[in-house]
Amino acid sequence: MQSTKISGQPVICQLLSYIPQHLLQQAVDLHQSDRYYKTMTTYRQLAFIFYGVVSRINSLNSLCKSLLFLKNRLTYLGIRELPAVSTLSDANKNRDSAVFGTLYHLLVNYYKNYLTHSYLSMFVNGEVDPQQVKIFDSTTIKLFLEIFTGAGPSRLHGKRKGGLKVHALMPLDRYVPELVWMSPASYHDNHFLGQLEFLPGFTYVFDKGYLNYQLFKQWAAKSIFFVTRLKQTAQYRILKTTHTQLHEFLGGGVICDQVISLHKGTQPGFLTARLITYKDPVSGKVLRFLTNQFTYQAQTVVALYKNRWLMETFFKQLKQNFELSTFYSDSKHGIKTQVWIALIAQLIFTVVHKQVRECELFTTLVSISTANLGAYQCLISTLKCKRLSPQERNLEIVQLEIFDLKLRGHFQYAQNSP
Question: Given the DSSP bridges, would you call strands 203-205 and 133-142 parallel, antiparallel or unpaired?
Answer without folding.
Answer: parallel
